[in-house]
Amino acid sequence: MGWYVISGWKKNTSAALVAAGILFIVRTMAASNAQPTSQSAGPAAGPERPELPAPELSVVVPVLNEAGNIAPLIGEIRAALDGRMAYQIVYVDDGSGDGTARELLEAAGQCPFLKVVRHNRRLGQSAALITGLKAALAPLVATLDGDGQNDPADIVKLLARRLEAPAPDREKLMIAGHRANRKDTWGKRASSVLANRVRGAVLGDRTPDTGCGLKLFPRAAFMEMPHFDHMHRFLPALMIRSGGRVVSVVVNHRPRRRGRSNYGMWDRLWVGIVDLFGVMWLLRRACAPLVDNPDDRPDDKHD
Prior knowledge:
Elements: H1 2-33, E1 38-41, E2 57-63, H2 70-81, E3 87-93, H3 100-110, E4 114-119, H4 125-135, E5 140-143, H5 154-163, E6 173-178, H6 186-203, E7 215-218, H7 219-223, H8 235-241, E8 245-250, H9 273-284
Parallel strand pairs: 2-3, 2-5, 3-4, 6-8
Antiparallel strand pairs: 1-4, 5-7, 6-7
Helix pairs in contact: 1-9
């Protein structure tokens, strides 16, 4: 009797995974086809600006209704990175209805290496992230939330940790922030802990804080990932799926000083159940071959 129960459970689980995989693909294709045109804004008209060097790093910041947080966060990013490397800042306004667009336009007029892209309607944090990565010019990308709770000074810490890895490993290496001492409400912390435990148990990504917006990774590795709604919650698992590695680094986390959370607690777990099984389905079908490069082998000699 026990064998029949186990056998039936396995069959039901496999069927559920197949169904979730099909639904996941349909939703991904629908989301891709529904992308509205983004509007791009650069520096305001004025005196001719000097040509900027090609950026080594793009800092991508998705925002929704973050008026009041724009200028302070840009100032902190500049304070952390000015003089260290050539970099670019990419803000993606996910269809904000407050003064965010106006503040970003003003900031672009004062910061020649700030690029602003705007969705003409709200699409969600993952869509904003994808738009930002497409607009990024640098081979290396750092992401952080636009509410000011991530500390831009920690980007330097992530960069230093990346340099500790052997050069060949950096091509598919993600450095993920870990908010060990979160400055959030009890409900937000509890939902995040639960979501991380569920994802960790199902996906085995061995990442204690997948929801932390502060991450550092190669742009090319991200562009090779499957893109879908809520994918930002699964970036470590997707990096591992592609044959990469994820290293977590403890980072600073600060209370929100202005505004309120716009991407709610529901997104942290329950709305992602289908996506969770969809990613599990993707992981089971992962293919990350090791390519033997002929250029690395001695030339064959023939008579």
